[in-house]
Design a protein that fits this description.
alpha+beta, Porin, 8-stranded antiparallel barrel, 2 helices, 8 strands
């Protein structure tokens, strides 16, 4: 009995001691106030450092702005001078020699006021390898040296089908080299009417197109030139029933120039 009382007393004393320690731990804070204060001071110092750094960068940018502006201005001037040099080199190496060659060997065919009449025959392929022929008489007038405009008529005939068409068009050409062997580029607008076995006779199967061409011309006789060209339709709006679907064309033609005396 005596041992039981002693054991009970010891357990009670240990329990009271543990409770007292828990109370002390509950009242003690996890982070001391001093530590919190040091953290706040450090955060304030970092904030001040960031603000001072941003202010220095701002001042440096403001100080550098006039210099950067001046550098950009100088760079722009250098680019302008370089482009002018390239322009002068192109003029000296290409434009001027071409002009001198045209002045020395150029034909009066291409002078302002000259007129030419001519015609060409072309061969082309449509869809499904449909071969067709094209006849193209034309007349032109030189508004400026090397630049001319005119009108033309056209007749197309598809050999493998009943398709045929008539057209009227406006065209323009430029001849950069105007010697006995000359070259040209051109464009034209055409409109006309198509006919085929699957198109009713009273139906107006009209079409219009824009063509581009590039070619070369050779001096044959006094006022007569032989030309060859390649032509394609940049835009072609036609009646689908007519089965037109023309592709590129190779042309050979002759032109007669008058209104100026030949050299």
């Amino acid at each position: 009995m005596k041992n039981l009382l002693t054991t009970t007393a010891m357990l009670t004393l240990l329990s009271m001691t543990a409770m007292a320690q828990n109370e002390n731990n509950r009242e003690r804070p996890l982070i001391k106030e001093e530590t919190k204060e040091r953290v706040r001071e450090k955060a304030q110092d970092v904030k001040e450092d960031v603000r001072e750094g941003a202010e220095k960068l701002k001042n440096r940018a403001e100080d550098r702005a006039p210099e950067v502006k001046e550098e950009l201005k100088e760079t722009g001037q250098q680019v302008k001078e370089a482009s002018q040099e390239v322009k002068e080199e192109v003029r000296a190496s290409i434009v001027e020699p071409t002009r001198q060659r045209n002045d020395r060997y150029g034909l009066p065919w291409y002078d302002k006021g000259s007129v030419f009449v001519g015609s060409s025959i072309g061969v082309g392929l449509g869809s499904n390898n449909g071969l067709y022929l094209a006849l193209d008489p034309r007349i032109g007038y030189f508004f400026q040296q090397g630049f001319m405009g005119g009108v033309r008529l056209g007749y197309d005939r598809r050999l493998s089908t009943s398709f045929r068409s008539n057209q009227f068009g406006l065209f323009a050409r430029y001849y950069p080299f105007r010697t006995r062997i000359s070259s040209f580029v051109g464009a034209g607008y055409n409109f006309g009417r198509e006919r085929a076995s699957n198109v009713a006779a009273d139906e107006k199967a009209r079409y219009n197109s824009i063509n581009l061409e590039v070619g070369i011309q050779f001096y044959l006789l006094r006022n007569l030139g032989l030309e060859g060209s390649l032509e394609t339709n940049y835009y072609d709006r036609s009646n689908p029933l007519a089965g037109r679907n023309r592709g590129g064309r190779a042309r050979v033609g002759v032109n007669y120039y008058f209104g100026r005396s030949s050299r």
